[in-house]
Design goal:
single chain, mainly alpha
Length: 132
């Protein structure tokens, strides 16, 4: 079941959640415990997470949609309605986000993260990490 996210503050629940995932001035990325991840995945991640991640690693949104094994229209509807992703999509999205967070810990810069993810890697058989 998908739910609508609403708050009365100027910052939306999505803004606060995304700050926890991707970091902000006040909160570093990767600040959720394993138990919090499980709860968030079961409840569903906000649909806007897809476009936020695509923007962070400078890939088209449809590439992230492809990684999630769903359709662009499904994600568009979720974003437009400001609803949550289904648990299966949330689980896949969480895996991708955790890779992003680890890259962010290592490279400390979204541009470097994007370059590394999209560049062929000798250790991976000259395949780019995003292709895996």
């Amino acid at each position: 079941m998908r739910t609508q996210i609403t708050t009365k503050n100027t910052k939306t629940a999505d803004d606060i959640f995304l700050a926890g995932l991707f970091g902000s001035d006040t909160k570093p990325a990767n600040s959720f415990s394993d138990q919090e991840w499980i709860q968030k995945i079961r409840r569903g991640l906000p649909g806007i997470t897809v476009s936020t991640l695509a923007g962070r690693i400078d890939v088209p949104q449809k590439m992230v949609v492809y990684w999630l094994h769903t359709t662009t229209r499904t994600i568009q509807r979720t974003i437009e309605a400001k609803t949550l992703l289904a648990p299966d999509l949330s689980d896949r999205m969480a895996q991708i986000i955790r890779v992003y967070q680890r890259c962010q810990e290592v490279f400390k810069d979204d541009k470097k993260v994007s370059t590394w993810l999209k560049s062929p890697n000798y250790a991976l058989g000259n395949v780019s990490p995003v292709d895996l």
